[in-house]
């Protein structure tokens, strides 16, 4: 295939994303107000609890089997590498740009976690629908759904474990510093008031040394001490129990096991167990209504999420105090360095036989390095009421560049694997 044919094939799905995103941005304007903050909150709740879990569960149950999962074993490793390499590049960016302390976790989250959810469900099927795609048309849609489902599931788990953890620690630390600053100011004010009032005091707080009680004052204050008290040694098993208890208290399993993660578990449970799969999946399955209902609900996830993404970008137009150097650095990490390193990783894995000969699978593995930051990062910022304006500005510019960058990288990846 020529470069122009590959470019058009890669451009079509990106244009779909941009069109729906633009509609979401338009209907969120104050003059239209069809997707204002209240409506966006309710729609986001539906997507989070109903639409997206149904989409992931139905696609995984329908497309993932024990044999297909064996061929996709490198995808979890590849997604883990995207988080590790992205975090390393984000750490380098922090050292170079030296942003404020409260932006460190946000930069790490935007550099490490990519949007492997709704974008993959739009881009991959749209590429398979193109007649000139280099992956063929027989198994492209079926394999593409499986790759998109597994990529979305693993990406969501990474966002809600790693990114959630670092954002929570950063938010707790910064809020603690704010509280400490406020308490210090309060103590300073009280101390100044005490110094002013002490000028009017005529009596000492402690009795003078020449008073009758002064001779025995030190004796009265001293407590008897016997050397029988010793530190009792804590058994090793108790130390382990304490560590586990602290970990359980600090880990928010409600956020780790999100509805999407639960949908992933159900999808794997149905798809990988043959007796249950025969009951639910297939045109002649007795309980096929469950799968068809989940598919019907899941079809609403992609347009809804893309509309919300466009509406959320509206707040980024208002600006924030985030440096333009930081924004350019995140854009460079996500659209230059990560994709280049991704090509090296995937090509090395293919050379050593870790990845099969499926061209679409190789393309998806490379594409996982070239997507914009995960929208879940913005959701986490809203959850902690922390860094929302900065995250909106970063999302605005990274998604504005995404249309151009994703098209070029998709074209290059298709040329590379074909």
From TrEMBL:
Residue ranges crossing the lipid bilayer per the database entry: 6-29, 41-61, 73-94, 106-127, 147-167, 256-276, 296-315, 322-346, 366-384, 396-417
Gene Ontology biological process terms from the UniProt entry: auxin-activated signaling pathway; endoplasmic reticulum to cytosol auxin transport
Domain of life where this protein originates: Eukaryota
Main location: endoplasmic reticulum
Assigned keywords, A-Z: Auxin signaling pathway, Endoplasmic reticulum, Membrane, Transmembrane, Transmembrane helix, Transport
Record field: compositional bias (Basic and acidic residues): 224-236
Membrane topology: Multi-pass membrane protein
Annotated localization: Endoplasmic reticulum membrane
Keyword field contains Transmembrane helix: yes
Gene Ontology molecular function: transmembrane transporter activity
GO cellular component, one term: membrane
Residue segments, region Disordered: 205-236
Family the UniProt entry places it in: Belongs to the auxin efflux carrier (TC 2.A.69.2) family.
Stated role: Involved in cellular auxin homeostasis by regulating auxin metabolism. Regulates intracellular auxin accumulation at the endoplasmic reticulum and thus auxin availability for nuclear auxin signaling.
Protein name as it appears in the record: Protein PIN-likeS 1
Organism: Vitis vinifera (Grape)
UniProt lineage: Eukaryota, Viridiplantae, Streptophyta, Embryophyta, Tracheophyta
């Amino acid at each position: 295939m020529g470069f122009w044919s590959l470019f058009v094939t890669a451009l079509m799905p990106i244009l779909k994303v941009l069109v729906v995103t633009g509609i979401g941005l338009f209907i969120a304007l104050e003059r239209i107000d069809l997707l204002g903050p209240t409506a966006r909150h309710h729609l986001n709740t539906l997507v989070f609890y109903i639409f997206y879990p149904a989409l992931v569960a139905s696609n995984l149950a329908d497309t993932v089997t024990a044999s297909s999962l064996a061929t996709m074993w490198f995808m979890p490793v590849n997604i883990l590498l995207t988080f590790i390499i992205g975090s390393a590049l984000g750490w380098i960016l922090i050292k170079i740009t030296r942003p404020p302390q409260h932006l460190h976790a946000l930069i790490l989250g935007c550099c490490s976690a990519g949007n492997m959810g709704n974008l993959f469900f739009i881009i991959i099927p749209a590429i398979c629908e193109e007649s000139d795609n280099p992956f063929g048309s027989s198994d492209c849609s079926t394999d593409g759904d499986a790759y998109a489902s597994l990529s979305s599931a693993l990406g969501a788990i990474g966002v809600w474990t790693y990114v959630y953890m670092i954002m929570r620690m950063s938010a707790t630390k910064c809020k603690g510093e704010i509280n400490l600053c406020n308490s210090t100011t309060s103590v300073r004010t009280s101390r100044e008031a005490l110094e002013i009032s002490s000028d009017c005091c005529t009596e000492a707080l402690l009795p003078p040394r020449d008073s009758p009680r002064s001779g025995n004052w030190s004796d009265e204050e001293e407590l008897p001490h016997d050397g029988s008290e010793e530190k009792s040694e804590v058994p090793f098993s108790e130390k382990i129990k304490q560590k586990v208890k602290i970990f359980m208290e600090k880990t928010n399993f409600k956020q780790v096991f999100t509805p999407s993660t639960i949908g992933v578990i159900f999808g794997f449970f149905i798809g990988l167990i043959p007796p249950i799969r025969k009951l639910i999946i297939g045109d002649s399955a007795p309980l096929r209504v469950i799968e068809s209902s989940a598919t019907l609900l899941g079809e609403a996830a992609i347009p809804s999420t893309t509309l919300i993404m466009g509406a959320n970008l509206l707040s980024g137009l208002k600006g924030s105090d985030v440096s333009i150097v930081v924004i350019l650095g995140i854009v460079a990490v996500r659209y230059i360095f990560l994709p280049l390193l991704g090509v090296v990783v995937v090509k090395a894995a293919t050379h050593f036989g870790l990845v099969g000969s499926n061209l679409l699978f190789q393309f998806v593995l490379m594409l996982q390095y070239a997507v914009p930051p995960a929208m879940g990062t913005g959701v986490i910022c809203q959850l902690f009421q922390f860094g929302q304006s900065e995250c909106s500005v970063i999302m605005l510019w990274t998604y504005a560049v995404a249309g151009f960058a994703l098209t070029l990288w998709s074209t290059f990846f298709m040329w590379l694997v074909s």
